[in-house]
Amino acid sequence: MLASFFTGLGSWIVIIHIVKMAMDNGLSESEAARLTMFLAMGGLAMRIPAGLLANLFGRIKICVIVNCCFCLCHIIIAIPGVASSKLILALFAFGAGGFSGAHFCLLPSVPSELKLPERFSNIMLVAILSPSGLGLLAGPPIAGAMHTSFGSYRPAMLFAASCSAVGCALLILTAFVLRDVPTVSGTGMAKSIPRGTTPLTLPTEDGDDCVLVVDGGNGSAEEKKGKEKRPSYDWGQLGLTRDVYAYSQEALQ
Predict the structure, then answer these.
(1) 132, CA 20 to 30 Å: which among 138, 151, 202, 212?
(2) End-to-end distance of the chain based on CA atoms, in angstroms?
(3) What is the value of pTM for the model shown?
């Protein structure tokens, strides 16, 4: 949540303020307005490649790389004298628009790599996008206030870079903390459940009890109902985690 808020906080500063920033650096109003075209072109051009790379190397990794590049663009444009070049401003607009577009293209898919139960993944999607929207609303006014106070967009660009860097750090921390969360499908979850514990009894739709046990040999979960043994439950559908299972064991003992 915090990662999405900080990345959103810096993302729209360039989109809202690039025309005024270009005019402050000597471009005419019409020349500065054309930079919005480069923003749109970058956002269109980088979304699909970012998605393809995310499928190959992982969404969180590519999202971090995209935000690092976004941060670097703002640091470069904040260097004194750099923003006075029309070519540099055009490249900056293309890159910032592209990396920002790629970020928001990848952001909704990040929960799928956090190995959470499906119901939590749905909640996480709302929890990620809502703070990001708040950041998008708050960032441009803050940048405008900084421009009014300092008389330059350099502090605002550094602020956007800082927000992106903080968001990257929090995203990496989130992936690191959740790296050991068990997989929520089939045997991945079953292998994370302690062996040799009291079976967990759950009711079925027809009113009978269903007993979930853990095989001490290979750790596979099985369902026993009467004399019939059937394939294992999908632990993701049950929404059970290791902690919930451990708590149920204590309640049954």
Answers:
(1) 151
(2) 37
(3) 0.63
What is the strand order of the sheet 228-230 is part of? Answer: 200-203, 209-214, 221-225, 228-230
Q: Which residues contact residue 7 at a Cβ distance below 8 angstroms, ignoring those fewer than 6 apart?
A: 67, 103, 107, 132, 135, 163, 164, 167, 168, 171
Transcribe 38-63 into DSSP letters.
HHHHHHHHHHHHHHHHHHHH-HHHHH
Q: What is the CATH number of domain 2-180?
A: 1.20.1250.20
Beta bridge partners of 230: 223
Q: Give exposure, 142-174, as e/b (b: 16+ Cβ within 10 Å).
A: bbbebbeeeebbbebbbbbbbbbbbbbebbeeb
Q: Tell me the C-alpha distance between 69 and 60, whole Å.
A: 14
DSSP string, 143-169: HHHHHHHHSSSHHHHHHHHHHHHHHHH
Residue range 97-112: average pLDDT? 86
CB neighbour class for 31 (10 Å; exposed up to 12, middle 13-18, buried from 19): middle
Tokens of residue 89, six digits: 């401003």
pLDDT-based confidence at 122, cuts 50/70/90?
low
